[in-house]
Amino acid sequence: MDRYESWKDVGFRLLIKQAEFIVTDAKGESFYVVRKNFKSNIGIEQYRYMVWWKGGKLDVNSKVEYGIYNVTEGKPKDYIYEDGSIYITKTEKKTIVLIK
Fold this sequence. Notes:
Layout: H1 7-26, E1 30-35, H2 44-53, E2 57-58, E3 64-70, E4 79-82, E5 86-92
Parallel strand pairs: 1-2, 1-3
Antiparallel strand pairs: 3-5, 4-5
Helix pairs in contact: 1-2
């Protein structure tokens, strides 16, 4: 970091990188983004805005959910992304069809 770059600039670029990861991983499918550890100070709306801005298809009814975890609260079991500040998980809801 040079002397003209603030920590906010670094954080913003990191947020963009995280959002780009989610959008790329979703491969054009719809998804939703949620904060997973509720003690954290993560503002989930900033993630939703960033993934939308980067072309993500946000849908609260989607079968795919990306979870954002603050690293200070522990490592989730099955994460797909980690950068020192957050972990990202991906959960796909399964549909069960009952046949008589």
